[in-house]
């Protein structure tokens, strides 16, 4: 605890994902006073045809 | 806001998914009085071996 | 199947939520060709202090 | 109802997933007094580069 | 890992929830070969006005 | 995009939650190169009787 899920469009590099997990863990740990080893991060990627705002998918723009 | 997630078995066409995002956005916008540009829709697909009812996966039927 | 989750700020009336469930079910059923009795809708409400965009919670605006 | 989601690292066999859905359904049905045909199970797999604890992804260990 | 979420209507007793967490953990541990101390269970309760099937909320039946 | 959900035990102060949303947004924005105004954060709190590890709820320890 805490458990963090980051949902974003696919396409980030491994280097970006590695930094994301590291820095989000630090931000959570620091602000809610939880030891870093208790922080779990999940990345969920979505494709452009499965994500829409205002009724239009990103793959259709 | 609002954020809508539709979880369903894989296999729908792009045309069906496009209509789904459009019409769900309209239904949400109309009923809860939110501007369409504030409505986000995510589609999550699952495969038949990752979905079960009554203890049996759809891939095992 | 499908399973739809609508996440939104608390404060909608029962009448709005009733219409939301009805019309989202119809939109999903129509567009992905699923019988309405197979469509499930979940509403998840969030409070303004648990929701932020651009780093600022809605309760802090 | 109930709806159960099991999120785990990819790599389990079909036989393990089949048993998982069956036995989790039985455990839920028995303990909360719901008929098995009302229990739905979803499996969500994650890859090692999308899952981290203590700021480090499993793919980086 | 694994992480299990059980979503159900509110109203179960503490005794039922305690048994649910225990027996679901055992079922998951046994079937996917994970040590019980690695299994996490979350319970999410929903109210009858936030849950509908076939376009009708359970609170409206 | 991205959408971040932080799930944790209830009991944090408003000050902690405010800082959490701010600093997680900065960490995500910086590492995946997304403008802060595109980052959304949701906080989900759970109670000790709805969260268990190794088959035992935190409320039962």
Automatic annotation (TrEMBL), chains A, B, C, D, E, F:
Q: Which UniProt keywords apply?
A: Isomerase
Domain 4-oxalocrotonate tautomerase-like as annotated: residue spans: 2-60
Q: What class of enzyme is it?
A: isomerase
User: What would be one Pfam family of this protein?
Assistant: Tautomerase
* Tagged with keyword Metal-binding: no
Task: State the Gene Ontology terms under molecular function.
Answer: isomerase activity
Is this entry keyworded DNA-binding? no
Q: Where is the signal peptide?
A: none
The UniProt entry annotates the active site at 2 (proton acceptor)
Q: Which domain of life is it from?
A: Bacteria
EC number from the UniProt entry: 5.3.2.-
PANTHER family per UniProt: 2-HYDROXYMUCONATE TAUTOMERASE (PTHR35530:SF1), TAUTOMERASE-RELATED (PTHR35530)
Describe the family membership recorded for this protein in Swiss-Prot or TrEMBL. Belongs to the 4-oxalocrotonate tautomerase family.
The protein here is known as Tautomerase
Q: What is the organism field in this record?
A: Lysinibacillus xylanilyticus
Taxonomic placement:
Bacteria, Bacillati, Bacillota, Bacilli, Bacillales
């Amino acid at each position: 605890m805490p458990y963090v899920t980051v949902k974003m469009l696919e396409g980030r590099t491994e280097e970006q994902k590695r930094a994301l997990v590291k820095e989000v863990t630090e931000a959570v740990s620091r602000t809610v006073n939880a030891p870093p080893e208790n922080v779990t991060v999940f990345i969920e990627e979505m494709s452009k045809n499965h994500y829409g705002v205002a009724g239009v998918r990103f793959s259709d723009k």
